[in-house]
Specification:
4 helices; 2 domains; globular; three-stranded antiparallel β-sheet; alpha+beta; 7 strands
Length: 195
Amino acid sequence: MLEPETGIPMEELEGRLLFYAGKQHRGGFRGFLRGSPHLFRRPGDGELILSLLKDAERSPTRRAVDLRQLNRRPYYRVEFRKGRTLLEQEVSVPEVEPPDTVEPTPEAAATASTRHTEIQYSLVKLGGELNLDVWVARNDRSKSYRGELLGSLPRVLDVLPTQFNEATTRTIELIDVLWLQRNSIIAAFEVEATT
């Protein structure tokens, strides 16, 4: 684990990684850094990052860090009820990324769909193994992987225990996988398996 001052600036990775091939990928990084953990499309990317991290650990280079960015406050404040108490929380909204302009082939789309279900299955199983309750997106419960329905795996909830308004609850119910502990959402995963 590196301190912010000894970390590797993203600018040093520009043009060296598939998800940061050029200036046009700044901020969004093709969604790679924002999504759930997944494999590098090009193994050399992971090897490069690991090598740079190990080098920075062995021979740290201190760089000035903009404390305003390090302590950046989220952009929006939302209110929600917890019982009878009205609570306020800060949230941020990710930047909009330009859509991919390449249409996938039917075979590639089918592979992405299968990969999406495989990743969801793995997250559901892992959540259960961590003794957490798990929510599977309402529209994905009937999907199966390895002959098992996602909605019938151990520790998968039938009802999402939320205290949000109806529109918010409908949105949350469509998140691919949620991990819950004592009715609190502790992790949310939106799987992106695209071509």
